[in-house]
Every structure is written in C-alpha cells, then in structure tokens.
Amino acid sequence: MYAFEIDRPASLADAVTALGAEEAQALGGGQTLIPALKQRLASPARLVALSGVAEIKGICTADDGALSIGGGTTHADVAAGAGAYPALAALAGNIGDPAVRNRGTIGGSLANNDPSACYPAAVLGSGATVVTTNRQIAADDFFEGMFTTTLEDGEIITEVRFPVPEVASYQKFEQPASRFALVGVFVAKYADGVRVAVTGASEGGVFRWSEAEAALSRSFTPGALEGLSLSGDDMISDLHGTGAYRAHLVGVMARRAVAAAR
Amino acid sequence: MPKDGGIGASTKRREDVRFLTGNGHYTDDINLRGQAYVHFLRSDVAHGRLRSVDTSAAEAMPGVLRVFTGADFAELGGLPCGWQVTDRFGEVMQEPKHPVLAHGKARHVGDPIAAVVAETREQARDAAEAIVLDIEELPAVVDMKAALRDGATKVHDDLTSNLCYDWGFVEENKGAVDEAFRKAAHVTTLELINNRLVANPMEPRVAVGDYNRSTGDHTLYTTSQNPHVIRLLMGAFVLGIPEHKLRVVAPDVGGGFGSKIYHYAEEAFCTFAAKALNRPVKWTSSRSEAFMSDAHGRDHVTKIELALDAENNFTAIRTETYANMGAYLSTFAPSIPTWLHGTLMAGNYKTPHIYVNVKAVFTNTVPVDAYRGAGRPEATFQLERVIDKAARELGADPIALRRQNFITEFPYATPVAVEYDTGDYHATMDKLEEIADLKGFAARRKASEAKGKLRGLGVNCYIEACGIAPSNLVGQLGARAGLYESATVRVNATGGITVMTGSHSHGQGHETSFAQVISEMIGIDADQVEIVHGDTANSPMGMGTYGSRSLAVGGSAMVRATEKIINKARKIAAHLMEAAEGDIELKDGRFSVAGTDKSVAWGDVTLAAYVPHNYPLADLEPGLEETAFYDPSNFTYPAGAYACEVEVDPETGRVTIERFSAADDFGNVVNPMIVSGQVHGGIGQGIGQALLEGCAYDEQGQLLTGSYMDYAMPRADDLPFFAVDHSCQTPCTHNPLGVKGCGEAGAIGSPPAVVNAVVDALQSAGKDITHIDMPLTPSRVWAAMQG
Description:
The structure holds two protein chains of two kinds.
Chain A: E1 5-7, H1 12-19, E2 24-27, H2 33-38, E3 46-49, E4 59-61, E5 67-70, H3 75-81, H4 86-92, H5 98-103, H6 106-112, H7 119-126, E6 129-132, E7 136-138, H8 139-142, E8 143-145, E9 148-149, E10 157-162, E11 167-174, E12 181-190, E13 193-199, E14 207-208, H9 210-218, H10 243-260
Parallel strand pairs in A: 1-3, 2-3
Antiparallel strand pairs in A: 4-5, 5-10, 6-7, 6-10, 8-9, 11-12, 12-13, 13-14
Helix pairs in contact in A: 3-4
Chain B: H1 15-20, E1 36-42, E2 48-54, H2 56-59, E3 64-69, E4 105-106, E5 112-118, H3 121-128, E6 132-137, H4 144-147, E7 163-169, H5 174-183, E8 186-198, E9 206-212, E10 217-222, H6 227-239, E11 246-249, H7 265-277, E12 281-284, H8 287-293, E13 296-308, E14 314-326, E15 353-362, E16 368-369, H9 376-394, H10 398-405, E17 412-413, E18 419-420, H11 425-435, H12 441-450, E19 454-463, H13 471-476, E20 485-491, E21 497-501, H14 510-523, E22 529-532, H15 550-576, E23 584-587, E24 590-593, E25 599-601, H16 602-610, E26 625-630, E27 639-648, E28 655-665, H17 672-692, E29 722-725, H18 745-764, H19 778-785
Parallel strand pairs in B: 1-12, 10-11, 13-16, 14-15, 21-22, 28-29
Antiparallel strand pairs in B: 1-5, 2-4, 2-6, 3-5, 7-15, 8-13, 9-10, 9-12, 13-14, 17-18, 19-27, 20-21, 20-26, 23-24, 24-25, 27-28
Helix pairs in contact in B: 9-18, 14-15, 15-16, 17-18
C-alpha cells in the first residue's frame, strides 16, 4: 500500500466537497479497492470514506412502491432488510463471504462494475434507477462495460430504486476459486414484460439477453428458453471456462432462474 | 471402553488451547529490538538475462540500509540439494547452482533478484520499486516434453540440457516387464497428469535473522518443519557457519504440508544480512509471494500400462513419467519422483514385474518438491486409475479385481525394492464396504437420477511408505542425510518430565500424543509430561517432520530414551527398597518389589536421583536424563481402502462429493481423535487436488493462478462429513510402538477415489469417458461430456 490521505466526511455535502480535491477517490466498503491498494495496483493520493455518511444508508419503500436502497447500505443489511424483494435479498446474502457482506456496499459494487459482480445483474434485470448526487440514471444507461460506468468524477451513488417485480430469481454459478459469478442470471417478471440480465459471462460486462426476455414475456416457463442460445464468441474465456461454456451456462442458469422465480 | 489417558485415548489436544485462543507464538510474532525489514525484488519474467541491476536510486531512498544483489552472494555457497539421484545409465543427475539471489539469469517468475533492507517494510518496498532492472527476456521453458527437445532453450546454460536425470527402476526388471507385456492377455493404457499444486499453509513463511556481535552467535527464527536440517544445510553449505555458532528456532508453525521442509533463500538472506548490517532482519511473505516462492508440489505427466493374464491377474506394470523440477532443485526434489514414487508402484498388489521410468525436467517455473504424500500420491493415482480403467475394459467388478490381486502374505518383497512388513488389505476393504454402505449405492444412484443428477461410486486402495527411513539404505539411494530421529527425556527432581524431540509439530498434535506415550510407559498423568521441539538449542538433533514419520521414528527415539530412564529408575528403586533389580516392577507410576507389598512412588525415585543421599553412587550417576537416537530398520506401510460417491450435474458439469469413506490400517493408534483429524485434513487436501486446485502457467511462464481469485482451495462446504475408520490394525513389526503413520494417507488415498467416481457417474449416462485430468472443474467435466 502506498501512503494516502483519508477524509471521513459525516455528510453527503462534505463528501462531495472532499471528492473535489485533486486525485481524490471514493471509498465505499473497500472490498475491491483495499485489496488493490494493498497490492499497489492503485495509488490514489486521497481517499474519501463514505462509511460515515448516514444519509446514504438504509432501505425503505418509496411512494411508487419501488424498493429504495441507500448507496452506502451493506450487502448484509440488504440481505436482512430487503424482504419486499426476496430475489434481491437472496442475491445480497450470497455475495462473497460474511466479511465482504458486512463491509461491501451496493453503491461501491455498482460504481466498480466488476464484470463478475452480482449487483449489476439485479440492477439491470430490475430496470432499477441509480440515483446520484447529480442525477437519476436508468440502469440501461448506467453500465458501460467492464469496470466502466457512466458515473463522472466525484459523483456519488446515493440510492438505488428497484421496481419490485411479480416474481424474480438470481441464479449464480460460481467460479470455483473466487466464487464470483462465472455466470449469473437475474430474471424478473413485471406486468409489462420480463427482464433478463447476465453477469460474469461477457467481455462487455453485464448485459440483457433480449431474445430470452421476448420469449419469457410470451411464456414465463423454463421451456420458453429451449432452443435459444448465445454465441460464445463475445464471452470471457479463461482458466475457469471457455466462452462456449459460459454461453451454455447462461442458458442453464436462465432456465433455473425462471423455475425458481418467486 | 475408550481409555481416558495413555495410548489409545482420544485425549483433547493441549496445544489447541493456545492456538484457538490466539495465544500461539509464531515466527511473525517475533520482533527483535532494532529489527530491519527486507523486501525482495522478484523477477516478473519467467526467463531473462540480467544485463544490469542498478540499485543507486534505491540506495538513496528514505530508510534504506542496504540493497543486496546476486553479486553479494557470489563468494558464498548456493542452496544445496539434499538428494543425488543416479540415472539409469549410472550417471549422477545434473545439479545446477541455486544462488541465494539470482545471478546472471532469472529463471522463474518470483526468482529473487535483489533485496532491500530498510527501517520499515514499506520503505523497503518503496525502494525496491526504484531499482532499475535491465533484463533481456529469453524464451521460457514451460512444457516438459518441449523442454527435452533438441535445441530447446536451456534453463541453465552450464548444463547439457534441461534433463535432470532419466531414471529407470528397477533397470534390471525391464526385460522381464517387456516380456510380460508381450505375453499379456490384456493391456490397459492410461495417460494422465498429476496436477501441480501450491501447498498454501495458513501461515505464510517468515524468517528473522539475528547476530550477536559480541559472541559471534547467529540465530535464525523460521517457519520450518525441521530446524536442525536448516541449521545443517544453511550453516554448512551456504553461509559457512559452524553449528555451535548457529541456532535455528521454529516456534509454532501454522501448517507445512511439505512446503516448510526445504531450505529457502530468504532464510539464508536474513541470517547473512543480520551480520552484514549488525541488525536483526525480518522477512514476512505475502500470500502473493508464497504462490511464487514456496516450493510447489506434484506436476507429473505419466503414461502407465497394466498387463493382465487371461484370468485377470496383474502380470506387469510399466510407466513413463515426466516430473517437473522447476527452475532449481529444491532440497529434496530429486527423491520425490524416484525413491518415494517408484518404490510404491506395486501398490497393494502382487504384480510380479514392474518397471518405472522417470525423466526429471528443468523448466522456468517455481521449484517443485514434496507436498503431503510426496511421490506416493502420484504412484497411487496412476495405479488406481489404470486398475479402474482395466476393470471397465474387462467388464470386471473393480473391487473384485483388486481383491483378486491383493498381496496376502507378509512380509512381502515387491519387485520395486521394498519389503512390506505387515498388512491386511482384505480387512480394510471389508471395513470400507461396511462403512461406505456400498450395498445402498444403487438406491442412492436412483434417488440422484430422480433429481436429474448422475451419481458415481469410486473405490480404490492405497499403500504408502512412511517413517522414512533406514539411514544406510537412503544413503545408498543418494540421500545426503541420515534419517534417524533423536529425543532427550529429562526427568526433573519432582517427577515431571520434559521431552526434547527432533520431531517438529506444526499441527500434528505431538505435544499431546507424545505425552500420552510417556504416560502409558511410566504410568503417570500426561500432564506431568511436557513436549519441547523446534529449537536447535534444546533438542540434540532432529531430522524433522515429514513423510508421516514423527511417531514411527521420533516417537520410537522417545520410547528408547524412556526405556533407558526406566531402567535407571528401576536401579534406583531397587536400591531404595533394598531389593534385587530384577524383582522391580513399574506399574501406574509406582515401583514395587514383586511378590511383596513394598513400593516407592515415581516421585520418590526421581527425587533420589537428584538428591542422592540414599543412592548407589558407586554404581550409578545421579540425575535422570537420557538421550536416544533411533534409526528405523525399514519403512512402515500404512494402507487402506477409500470410497467416494459423487453427484455430477449433467447440465453444468459441477461435481459434488456426497459421501466419502476411508478405512485405514495405521497399525497401533495412540490418539484416535488426532488420527481421525489427520485423515480428515488429508482427504480435504486430496479432494482439493481432485476437484479444485490446479496451478497453471501460460506459455510465457507467467503464473496464471497467483492468488485465491484463481487458485481454488477447498472450503468446508466443498466437503461432506467423512466416515473414517482405523480399527483394522496390523501393527508395524519393527518399531517399538507398532505404529505406521497417518499424516498423508488421506491425501494419497482420496484423489483416485474422486476421479474414479466421476468417471463412473459419466459412464452411467452412457458417456464413453475413461479419464479426465484433475482438477475436475465444472468446465472440464462439461467439456468432456460434450465429447
């Protein structure tokens, strides 16, 4: 780890001010950033810890029925407190290990946009809205590829609003070593259609599987996905699985998600 | 009735109190006054010529005391290899220099090139980044067979090739083996890989060097399984320090699994730099460094052939193995694929003709040496896999085929140079069939199929050679060390006992089980006995803990020393009771005169030894302390039968272990609970090798699995509850305790069971799959199923 300055603002306004400093970087739960710092893969001059900002923590139901989760809410708190959206709570409860779940935050995970992270699948699969200090961003506009989002420098995720579906499920097939998603598929059925989001598989990060969405919107059954397949060409191919394997797993996990949707 | 003390009691491990309450005292807990820190600059290329190493900027960095490079060690010895193998043509192996810091070339990713010593760890690391390296990158040698082709880039320019040795065993058997294959009714051939593993003990390696300028004494604190061996190797071969001026301390050590046997460059560096700088120098490995600097394990590529006659009797075995040595010879590396592997190729079977060929190869990878099991898992895996394949080809029941070929008469001299003293392989197989409920398998398979899963059953046997080893024998085989063990038993005036053993304990529970043995022999409470190990200043000599040898060899030394103690104490007791020595009996901690009610307590005798007022001073020295060295007359041969049941998800290829059963014969058992724990841990590591762990390099020699993000360690939820049994006991005939060793069995016996089970599951779905190389990851199993 290189030496750095750290700010611990207690309010969102102070956090925004602190992030205005040169080379400042936000620190959520630190479950990705701290290991990167320890390996000297990142060298920010100044970290702004968001863990003291109470106003971006917590879970509530908005007037329109959406489940609103503060950007600084830990995975463990979502697992315990998002009962109104069981598939989301289950997803949060199965991220990493207890240490990760008790430190890592939804805002940190989304801002990092690891191509194998779980939360991006839930946000994209739910058509959620990412609320920041500057604006509201639709999920379809938020993710821009591996480790890349539409967030601007200094912009903090304050809240994520999830429309609650009729039924949903997230099925993760774990990479054996890291237990990140080798493939994770989030399926959510809304009155106006079905959304299917896939994480872990693609070189481009989380994506929607539109053919599956169309098929499931017609018939929300595992059988509706028979015959549909993705190409392995654009999928991640590494030590843990070829692109063809990942493409195959997307189909398997999607069918299982439909079968398990509650 | 289970005993509550002594031999056979499941006494709780006394050392666990300090381990589980955070009060263990590990090497990294040692911080000396004035301590400086070293950071090693390691090669990030697999193979490169060092054109220049410019340390001037680093030397000027804050807190830097000195920057060392290979040139600083040019006048000193390199890291020695402890075993010289002679090849099938009678030539000794090629043995390259292994400098403390790379000199001339860097030969693997992680090879230390320079070392910065600074006031703080961060300053040392900062300065290391300021070293300017000019490296001419050379083609990396990664694949073993490619490494042996004509014109291949050489890892060591001064050797004739990348071949360390071409070993044939037993060379004289070769003609008879070939003849048996010509006459065979059936031949089964299998090509397989025994995957490269990283040991990953929970505690990474640490070294702290210290030097006392006023006395000239050196001390090295290190994470070692055998501090005396480190003292000998480092003192005599690397730094030129006589043993009486060098103390090596290995305090609590958090697991070794073989990887902490060897003498490493970092140990020599810290000892050397402490004198050069007149400051204690400390190094603590990061996990990332451990992946590229701890010796790796296994990494064999093998072709095995099994010949059978028309009645399915095994008639011959022929193997050809390529064994990866990595870039340098680690301390015991040459012995693992040879004497610890070839000698076990008979397994549990009376195959009359066996020939083993091993080509050891240098590559631009981390050195490979012993890892839990060491050579024996490699032998067991190929043998038990080829038998399973043969059973399938012949339509024979895999258990019946094994039983038909079991060795049943002991002692049994194998065609590969070893003589099994005892065993009963039918008994362990009978026990396995019972505890694994093999009769219930068909119903369990049906239940699995009903939920869309394929269920498979894999069974195998194993044998291992433990308690290494008769010194005169291993000397003939090329060992540059004796393999005895020593113990000093010091009885204190008030009767308590301190045992100094050379058998280091780093998880095995010696502090408990060794005390149980003394308790049994004398009849005093085990709490009266303290086991001390891990410090060359305390124990007379120690060859250390590996190869499941501690109780069989170190325990035997302790027994011999305790016998001397009892003999002397008997003389003292005879004097105290004015009786003949031959009439004295020792029972439950009291000496009595046979046939009378006269007796004296253990404490009366020990007190008399140190306060010799009423004492036969003319015939007997005062005091009660004895030392014994024990050199075994043979290896011990634990054996057993294992069964694994798996479910395979045909859609994803994911394998789950549903049941795992182990029936072992360890001879006599001192502490059944500790033995079960050792078997559990071994099976956990064996399942890790079979399903999860696989160290991988790319073609450029870059380590692809350099962290837990890519190297999969087994976790609790990867493992089922194990059914383990060690009630089948054929005691070892040649050591005083009749024990055989249990530390490695689980890791040896479990990988073939898992792979046999997965192949069985896939065959049950009509897939013509006869082998998949470990680790059987979901993607590999799925790919195999796609054909």
